[in-house]
Design brief:
5-stranded antiparallel β-sheet, alpha/beta, 443 residues, binds pyridoxal-5'-phosphate, globular
Amino acid sequence: MATETLTTMTGEEMIALSKKHTLFEWSAQSKVDPIPVAHAKGIYFYTPEGKRFIDFNSQLMCVNIGHGDERVIRAIQEQVATLAYANPFMATEPRARLGAKLAAIAPGDIDVFFFTNGGAEANENAIKLARLATGRHKILARYRSYHGATAGSMMLTGDPRRWASEPGMPGVVHVLDPYHGIARGWDTAEESLGMLEEVIELEGAHTIAAFILESVTGTNGVLVPPDGYMQGVRDVCTKHGIFMICDEVMAGFGRTGEWFAIDHWKVVPDIITMAKGLTSAYVQLGAVGMRRAIADQFKDKVFYGGLTYNSHPVACAAALATIDVYEQDNLLENARAMGSVMRLHLDDLARKHPSVGAARSIGLFGLVELVRDRAKKTPLAPFNGTSEEMAALGKFFRQEGLYTFVRWNTFFTNPPLCITEPQLREAFDIIDRGLEITDRAVS
Ligand SMILES: Cc1ncc(COP(=O)(O)O)c(C=O)c1O
């Protein structure tokens, strides 16, 4: 790829200058230790010095089709040359085609889309739509969730990333998830739905506009809901006139083996949000999809929302090309097939390594929870914290050329959906060796 020749800096120079003049997110700046990245292809990326990494997290769970796909690159180049920008009051061909394409693949009668720059803005606009359409104010969200870092989405977010921004937008009520951490485990769907009903009663159903939830929770643990939970949430929301908003920013676009994770439970939310895999992050784009009946409300009522880069032609063209790649290369089928292979690898790890407390996956969305005591399931790092052993595991992965997300007592297995069986084996060989480090901590 031509990109190899474009890098003129060494890795050290990239790091030094980036650290001097740019701020790294979610970090105390003296602690950041970035990997310098020069170019990428398929499931691999490379430093300027040529060190190769397996991208076992698809960067930020977003490069779903893999790196450097010529078809998407060409579509972006052609769109920039034809029409790089038109403002959101204009109609363009990529905007028109992408709206129609998403209507064809989105669940049920979700038919109308509003385009944003990413996931957080998609969620901002989803709650705006829900509030305008219902005339109600409160939003229910779950504790084990991440919905983005803009002001409103940060308040929807249930995990500790929210704390530093409080107090923020009023009206968000957090509810508990069916999952309570590795030591306490799972509620049944009925128990969890009962708790949800109780919160709705206590808050007043007529005050609640929407319940936003990740169809499969991402950074907070690849939490696949128990069967019946999503169907039950749908029923509870319908009963009370509360919009069900599914955040598919991470779980959408083939990650779980379906276009959208909610498709596994054949549930149609009122609103769906997406980003990441929509363009595989080749350029920025998010979207809010809504059922026809909601869109119809804005025929006469004003939709009070806007963005300079709404329906950006280059981003829409990139999304169309990316969706073509999913279809041409059968990436949903591959995610299902390779997801089964990954499941076997995860089961092997659980059998072999005493530090593996749980290994969850759906399609190519996977996570391992590590423990220091298998009977009590004491996590290997505390809630919102780290430990020497988790840090050592992260260091080992990096040294061995495996990039993935290591968070609290967990690490992720989220490769691009184009991964092959030998490539999965290569990655799991490294993981298998790495877990010898964490096994030594088990009492
Ligand atoms: C489930 C979910 N929602 C929303 C977001 C926010 O998306 P963005 O970072 O594009 O604003 C993320 C980002 O990781 C996410 O995982």
